[in-house]
Amino acid sequence: MEIERKIVAAVKAALSELYGQQAPESMVQLQKTREEFEGELTLVVFPFAKMSHKRPDETAREVGDYLVAHVPEVVSRYNAVGGFLNLSINAGQWISLLQDIAANPTYGLTPATDESPLVMIEYSSPNTNKPLHLGHVRNNLLGWSLARIMEACGNRVVKTNIVNDRGIHICKSMLAWLRWGNGETPESSGKKGDHLIGDYYVAFDKHYREEVKQLVAQGMDEEQAKQEAPLIREAHEMLVRWEKNDPEVRALWRRMNEWVYAGFDETYRALGVSFDKIYYESETYLEGKEKVEEGLEKGIFYRREDGSVWADLTKEGLDEKLLLRSDGTSVYMTQDIGTAKLRFQDYPIDKMIYVVGNEQNYHFQVLSILLDKLGFRWGKDLVHFSYGMVELPNGKMKSREGTVVDADDLIATMIQDARQMSEDKVNKLEGITDEEAQEIARIVGMGALKYFILKVDARKNMLFNPEESIDFNGNTGPFIQYTYARIRSILRKAEAQGIAVPAELPACELSQKEVSLIQHLQGFATAVRQAGKDYNPSCIANYCYDLVKEYNQFYHDFPVLREEDEEKRAVRLALSAAVAQVVKNGMSLLGIEVPERM
Ligand code: ARG
Question: Do 280 and 399 belong to one domain?
Answer without folding.
Answer: yes
